[in-house]
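Good morning N.,

You mentioned wanting to compare the apo and holo forms, so I went ahead and generated the holo version with magnesium ion. This is what I fed in:
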Amino acid sequence: MPPVIQASGVRKTYGATVAVEEVSFDVRDGEIFGLIGPNGAGKTTTMECIEGLRTPDRGTISVLGLDPVRDVYKLQDRIGVQLQQAQLQKRIKVWEAVDLWASLYQKKTVDAERLLEQLGLTEKRNAWFMNLSGGQKQRLFIALALINDPEVVFLDELTTGLDPQARRAIWELVRGIRERGKTVFLTTHLMEEAERLCDRVAIIEHGRIIDIDTPLSLVKRHCPERTVVLATNDPSAAERFRAIPGVQEVVCNHAEFTIRGRGDDLVTEVIHSLSENHIRVTDFRTVLPNLEDVFLKLTGRSIRD
Amino acid sequence: MMLRGLFKLTWIEIKIFLREPLGAIGTIVIPVIVFLVLGRAIGGKLPQPALAANTFIRVGLPVLASLLIAVSSVLSLVTIISIYREGGILKRLRATPLRPQTILTAHVIVKLLLTAATLTLLVLAGKRYYPVGVHVPFVSFTIALLITTWSILSIGFVIASIVPTARFAQPIGAIILYPMFALSGLFVPIASLPPALQALARVLPLTYAVRLLQGIWDGDAWSAHLGDVAALALVFAVCTALSTKVFRWE
Ligand SMILES: Nc1ncnc2c1ncn2[C@@H]1O[C@H](COP(=O)(O)OP(=O)(O)OP(=O)(O)O)[C@@H](O)[C@H]1O
Ligand SMILES: [Mg+2]
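and this is what came out, ligand included:
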């Protein structure tokens, strides 16, 4: 099966600002693909080029075998879009918005009332857009993105500004979209979101893609370090830990030790040393590197800076 | 299919307009009240024979009122378009198979309906309270006003393209549109203006609108005003072409 989205050598500038320098990637059928990167990295611009809302200066894009610029209406009939910054008419009612959207598509649309129910909006169907909470607005935008039963769904920063609980609920919804066999393309600058939700992620910075893979492989590839944090009063502990093979660094802060090293065996080796030397510990945990660390490593800065 | 979308969008925009605080009252009822108060204040003081001679009361005032309706429709369109652009509503609608022209057409239809409804109310109220006296070709006049509105709406789209933010939409639109009234021939006959202003009046669309509306109100045949209609159509064509070039969706 050919990729659902193919982008190669895409470049887009706004006047003197280079928003997307050069971006290439494929999105496979049925996966949740995430584009992650800091503010201004070019995520929205890339996505809008793929959706046919912007014309790239250079490069080729194909979505479902269509050219987003030439076949924009044909494409928009088959995709669902949620924009990063969008509003609706202040006084449009929830059901009116869904009903209006349903009338805009040539292909068969899904049952509006069922969709509202799935998104927990049935109670709000007569509410004006301006009176919805942030999470309800986001759910309405997801409903509008799903009304035409699209083959590919585009979600741009859909959980930004939501509280953790609403965020988790939206993640569940997105997993549900994938389960119905659809492809999801999303952007986020939340590493946790990417890690939990995406099958594969592309890390973008300054309009360039630095690496693409599953979150796990990215972590394995770029951050092979393991860290063990434990608490002990044993005076000989530091010396013993430094003798463990693979350990690169031991930091002691009061009674808390941070042991860093490489290799999958590090944790086993630490446990082995503890039992062999009869070291009594009052606390023990491992810290696994995550996408956040990968990002730091690849770009030399935290995504939040 | 697009007709279905156009119909739905138009209908929803009408409903949304009526939900605005002061939406219907501000744009429909207030012009009617102003017209009635003015008409009674001036008209009531004049004896009947003098009234017939006073063309401003007989023709000018109804035409002025109608034009004010048209211009306020246009200003409200300019404001709505810039609010929709600023809020990303236009962009969100454009991310559907909806054609951009369809979105704008829906707004034009809403404004034309609004103009027609206000005019109807005005005439109904005027019949009772305001001594119009002569028989007025209401249907022709409505059509003439809709042509006028259509033409000024196209100027509205150009204005909507250039206003930087929604906050400036109403004032900038007003600054462009209202001064045209002074030279339109409504208050001072164009022939009595200095030559430079006469030349300026001749390129302003409102001049042709006034001549068309006054003529039709007075019972002229359409054939006498083909030139005015052509001028308004030209304004529409030029402004539409211009706004497709400069219109910004976001
Ligand atoms: N319409 C525009 N006009 C001019 N410059 C723009 C426009 N949109 C984006 N930019 C610029 O292009 C660059 C990339 O912006 P883009 O919105 O694609 O980033 P992003 O990764 O989506 O950021 P965020 O995480 O803040 O949403 C930024 O420097 C931005 O200032
Ligand atoms: Mg963005």
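Chain B has a mean pLDDT of 84.

Happy to go through it together on a call whenever suits you.

Best,
F.
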